[in-house]
Fold this sequence. Notes:
Shape: globular
Radius of gyration: 23 Å
Number of strands: 22
CATH superfamily of the largest domain: Aldehyde Dehydrogenase, Chain A, domain 1
CATH class of the largest domain: Alpha Beta
Structural class: alpha/beta
Strand content: 15-25%
CATH architecture of the largest domain: 3-Layer(aba) Sandwich
Mean pLDDT: 97
Bound molecules: nicotinamide-adenine-dinucleotide
CATH topology of the largest domain: Aldehyde Dehydrogenase, Chain A, domain 1
Amino acid sequence: MTTQYRNLINGKMIQADDWLDVVNPANEEVIGQVPACGAEELDSAVIAAREAFKSWKTTSFEERQAACMAISAAIKENADELYRLLTSEQGKPHQQAKGEIYGAAGMAAAQATLKLEEEVLQDDDTRLHRSRRVPVGVVGGIVPWNFPVMMAIQKIVPALMSGCTIILKPSPFTPLATLRIAELIADKVPAGTVNIITGEDSLGPLITQHPGIDKITFTGSTATGKKIMEGASADLKRITLELGGNDASIVLPDADPKKVAEQLFWASFSNAGQICVAAKRIYIHEDIYDELAEAIAEYAKTVKVGDGSEQGTGVGPIQNKKQYERVLELIEDAKDNGYKFLTGGDKDPSGTGYYVPITILDNPPEDARIVAEEQFGPVMPLMKFSSEDEVIARANASDYGLAGSVWTADTEKGVAIAEQLETGTVWINEYMHLSPFAPFGGHKQSGFGAEYGLDGLREFTYPQVITVKKDAEVA
Ligand code: NAD
């Protein structure tokens, strides 16, 4: 019998009348069922979250921290079970799933140290003027399928730390590990502070438009982000949007192809390329282009594509059928246009499981779909450039502005280029290092606001200024 997972509402694990199937992308088998919630279940969660907010907003920093540390500990203590479950629903290899689970536990513990201090803006004979942050209220958290556990935690923990309560909706494709965490923390956080409900995509707009919800924190595609902004406008909900990206990596001629090939490969192909900040366009200086392209293609041949639960798999399947078909379509488009492939693109992807061969394209034009669009899959275009000004202009010629990287022996030059890139994050000689203490957010159509650090925490609060006139004559 298929395992049925329940939702967390008001401290209790709740069943539903209707269920959604969850499929393992490695073999297309149904591995679990989750409640298909609608307006009624959402209303119950909102009532619980509103009620819990009344007391949670008055809690001390220490009480909030203790709850978040309990979440962190529950994840860590059950990491073995959770990472296997995550691989089975998401597809990522065990090693990467382990990284996500321990990463989420670490993220929770780190964010539980964040504290927004009151500021005294003026204190003299006439006036005490201070500014403090107050929680916005009930938060609706909506997350995607590529890092389901990490994204859930990075919404739940700052919500709690700021004094808010939350209703979280996982992606219908990857709700299992999150619901298992819900079960593990149900008696570790006060009832109603954390509610986790599942449903189809159609549950999303109900959350966005619910009058009992004060803020939306969303991670997902730019297209959905725009709908959320529209839905949230009815009652001017606060919003934080972490959206798509088309990140450029720029490799300068002084980088050693032998040293950077493997790193660039994983910058692009970790999680089968399904990472918002994956390297999605790699620009290589013409002096080292041939050598580096060959080194990356050679390394690619050593990486096994397969079921993430099998030992030695480096690249798992695409997480869901719709995304799988989109990635295959981009490969077909590249073939139809006669672009050159260094690897992949030639295999028949039919069979069970959403597998796409590691595909590397050799210098396709800038207007190729695979360059201009976010591929979100294991397909990487390598492009040649000849001058810094030219590559900066090409990197910036995008509606996205999430992240990017520069690879060079001359870090000063790397920083000078980074400062000209129109993105929220730029790495020099590394990739995907995200600090829980640094704001992470997209420029342009890659986002709105930021997560992480004090900047991220502030987004769950309103500023409140209280002014006391000391020399007033009122009585
Ligand atoms: P998606 O936008 O399709 O779905 C994300 C979530 O939104 C899901 O829970 C879905 O059920 C829900 N949803 C769908 N329609 C909705 C609507 N109309 N209103 C409210 N909610 C709705 O995204 P996805 O395909 O799950 O994720 C992939 C995308 O996420 C990529 O573009 C990727 O770059 C982006 N992403 C961004 C970040 C970041 O931090 N910037 C991180 C991870 C993924």
